[in-house]
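Predict structure. Chain length: 434.
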Amino acid sequence: MKNEMIQIWIFNIGAERIWSSHLNKRSVNDYVQDKIVNCLDEMLLLMSKSEDILILRNKPDAEFLNYLKEIGIQIPHIFTLEKCNNEEPVSKLIYEDKKLLQSIKITLNNKKACLVPYAITELEEKIAQYLGVPVWGPPSDVAQLVNNKKYTRDIATKLGFPVTEGKVCINKNEVLMECDRLRAAGFDEVIVKELCNASGKGMYKVENEKRLERILKWYYANDESGYELLVEGWINTKRDFNFQIVIHIDGTIEYLGVSEQIMDHLVYVGSKFYPASGDIDKYEDYAKLIGKYLFSIGYIGYVNIDSIVDEENELIIPMIEINGRFSLSTYPGNIVKKSRKLCHMSYYLNLCLKTEVTSNRLLAKLYEEGLLAKNICAEGIILYTSQSLPSKKFYSNSLFMGRLFVLLNGNTWSDIERYKERLNELIIHNDDRS
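Prediction complete.
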């Protein structure tokens, strides 16, 4: 992608559901959490340039934008939907908002531009066609293929990488038989996964028979066939990594680096960027092999690959999952590359609090405590979402629910832990005392 092109950014998180709609019709959705996740579109402010266009669901807080600008983040041209809700897919809302699209066309004024969505389905292709610009990324059918865990295993096998023990099952009996086989092979626990999903959704660690029965009852209520699930032997990991590449239109593979993922059971809660370890030196070689293969099938754009190191034998399994889209480590990673002398950790908290938290109050408190980074290359805490914070009650007489996303910058990892502890104390411990 050429830097001189205007980039039109869309945060169409949830595209995984479109990719998986023909695979699993029984996926579990948490509609409150979906509303909160749909407020994370401000993350794209970390990716965009001042000349770019960013489409948001809701108008961002002016003071929050001023804060980002003051610490060195460029603010693009921001467009918001005329009629918005935080429930429907944003691309559907954008495509239906012809007044918005016409305003963007006028702003572009025939300048070179491209649409850069979080992920690509047919709907984003229609938006790009209406605007008269190309999509930066693969065709939607290739994107859907690459984001399938079954295909990840196929690619890994073709490239000669080790893969986890397991198989894709299409009915209840196959799942039961594979679980029995894995236990006989020495696995104490197994994990069951939907083929297209993100952030730990549709993944179930099976510790006992009752847990397995509940899973099977949900997916195969009437003993149906056709719901594909990946069943794997559970591996205790020494480390979890994510490495990112950009595949350019000429086939050039740009390696963006590796981060160590912080996991809470099966859920991602943050990343340590550029951790010190001999393991990470090998990932650039893996990235080039994977990127070359993906380009051969017509893929261009951002790619995130999840990898693990087996705790038992320290075997690197280079590809657990391919995400042909942005990931939660993509956005802060754009800041990290500008200040690599520091240690960096993105940190995420899913919050249910008795007291409301707004960006203005939180920033004021962080500043008062001397914890706020003065700029993106300085030590301290950087807040990079505002509307996702726990400032709303979704049920009567309920708690304030939301998500906090920050980047912690420090000279040492000990500094990072100190910032993390102080942040937890300010938000969670203070709430406990209220």
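Summary: The two ends are 50 Å apart (CA to CA).
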